[in-house]
Specification:
The complex is a heterodimer of chains A (208) and B (283). Chain A is an all-alpha fold and 208 residues long. Chain A is built from 13 helices and one strand; from the N terminus they run E-H-H-H-H-H-H-H-H-H-H-H-H-H. Chain A folds into two domains: 85 residues, Alpha Horseshoe (Leucine-rich Repeat Variant), CATH 1.25.10; 75 residues. The radius of gyration of chain A is 22 Å and the shape is elongated. The chains are: A mainly alpha (208), B alpha/beta (283).
Chain lengths: 208, 283
């Protein structure tokens, strides 16, 4: 029979010492930086090294590993290294940052109010998506707060889309006011109608 | 169970949007009754008095509720030749493509993870012996891994019941199995000994690190259960376990593109699979 059963896989080699990991992350080849990024969560000051590397890394594969390792660490420090990249003009970097933050929902929670009130409309828009990971009542409260004063239609649309999943009856008057403010903005009116219909269908009294 | 009209049309759509985003499972309006039955069961099991209450539990995955609901939707049994289209793709396209790379006598390596009680890795072995004319010209290593040592013991035993063999022709059953008591068949020793089984947690990099240079990985219906962070880690571990240019086959509702940009999507006649780029084209 041509099928063969070879010996066991090679045992896992122990990760390099932390200094080597951090050095490789900064100065290694693509493959070395990839491996170092994956090993960095086990190194002291790993989040800091990953954060510095993220700022200069151009290889998308290595960058992805850096984001994942920051998410694995999942501390406030990780969040703070990732947050600035939500403002990046590089779409890959911006999306990578959003995905990484989505993967550390507990650590990102304390930053959400600030993000939803950011001066940059793009950041507010992305923050709506981060709110989706919260328990429904918390997410609905945050998004209603944003929606009641938001001037950018695209940000409202992002909040409304998440409210379609998380919103309760408390969101209905806010959705109505938003629809009034953006009368004539057809896509948003349509989105608000769909979301309000979904919330009404729950037939549950307002929460909180 | 009493009245099954537990979901309004709007609630059904809200649920479907969530399930698609979270798991990749898609249901049309025509499936509402089917979905409602499972939701009613889960609402009863969790003590949720309304869909709104249940949906809140589901969204934040209280006590693994996403996994419990997915299990209610999926057929939790495995059997030989379950995903024949992927096996056809393996011999029609994937192995052929992998052989274009200079191999210098290296074996073709295939990993089934999670392999449960062994039906998938043994199916791969039988399929290759039956359907790949060049099977005698190459060494082929097949590894089955799972996090559950209980199912691995069953896999190693090579004992299967009638339901597990339902998709195999009588001729194949006779060729590769021997009766072993009432309604039980044991896979032939030669075949049983050609598949190696091992325990691994694919979310733990230290555990997957020894597994490398696979040409093809079958990783079906496990990423669907993971949260965002675990999916990312598992995807990178699987990437690292593939040889450059190697392929990964997922379950039909799963999409690697929704998890990570590391892989290229490849569409073949029989299946959509994901490929680790041959070299660092993503850099």
């Amino acid at each position: 029979m041509p099928l063969v059963r070879k010996s066991q896989e090679s045992p896992a080699t122990a990760p390099s010492d932390p200094a080597s990991v951090l050095s490789a992350l900064a100065h290694g080849t693509d493959d070395e930086r990839w491996a170092a990024a994956r090993a960095a969560p086990g190194a002291p000051a790993g989040a800091e090294a990953l954060g510095h590397a993220l700022a200069t890394e151009r290889n998308l594969r290595v960058r992805e590993a850096i984001f994942t390792s920051l998410a694995r660490i999942g501390t406030a420090e990780s969040v703070e290294w990732v947050l600035p990249h939500l403002r990046s003009d590089d779409a890959h970097l911006r999306t990578g940052a959003l995905d990484a933050l989505r993967a550390m929902k507990g650590a990102v929670r304390p930053y959400l109010e600030q993000l939803l009130g950011d001066l940059d409309a793009d950041v507010r828009l992305l923050a709506c998506e981060l709110a989706r990971n919260l328990p429904s009542e918390d997410a609905s409260r945050l998004l209603c707060g944003l929606l009641d004063s938001e001037l950018e239609a695209n940000v409202c649309a992002s909040a409304v889309e998440v409210l379609a999943e998380v919103g309760g009856a408390e969101a209905l008057p806010i959705l109505a006011r938003c629809a009034d403010r953006f009368r004539g903005t057809a896509f948003l009116e349509f989105s608000i109608k769909i979301t309000a219909d979904r919330i009404r269908a729950q037939a549950v009294p307002p929460r909180g | 169970m009493g009245d099954l009209a537990v979901l309004s049309a709007e609630e059904f759509r809200r649920l479907c949007d969530f399930l698609y985003r979270r798991t990749g499972m898609a249901f049309t309006d025509r499936k509402q009754y089917y979905v409602e039955r499972r939701i009613a069961e889960r609402m009863a099991a969790t003590g949720a008095g309304s869909f709104a209450t249940y949906f809140s539990l589901l969204r934040i995955d209280v006590e693994g509720e996403v996994e419990r609901l997915v299990n209610a939707f999926t057929v939790n049994e495995t059997y030989f030749y379950r995903e024949e289209h992927q096996l056809r793709c393996l011999t029609a396209d994937l192995i052929t493509d992998r052989l274009r790379v200079g191999r210098a006598g290296q074996a073709i390596r295939i990993w089934s993870v999670p392999c449960s009680t062994g039906e998938e890795p043994y199916s791969i072995a039988i399929w290759l012996l039956e359907n790949w004319p060049m099977v005698d010209r190459y060494e082929i290593e097949i590894v089955g891994s799972d996090i559950d040592t209980g199912v691995l013991e069953k896999a190693r035993s090579g004992l299967f019941g009638k339901r597990a063999l339902m998709r195999l022709s009588p001729a194949l059953v006779e060729k590769y199995f021997a009766p072993d008591g009432p309604d039980a068949w044991k896979i032939l020793d030669d075949l049983r000994e050609s598949v190696r089984f091992s325990r691994v947690n694919i979310v733990e990099p230290l555990e997957t690190r020894p597994y490398g240079h696979f040409d093809v990985i079958f990783c079906r219906n496990v990423l669907i259960y993971f949260d965002d962070a675990s999916r990312r880690i598992a995807a990178e571990n699987l990437y690292e376990s593939l040889a450059p240019g190697g392929y990964i086959c997922l379950g039909h509702s799963e999409s690697m593109s929704r998890i990570t940009p590391l892989f290229d999507v490849r569409r073949f006649a029989d299946a959509i699979v994901y490929q680790r780029p041959a070299e660092s084209t993503h850099g």
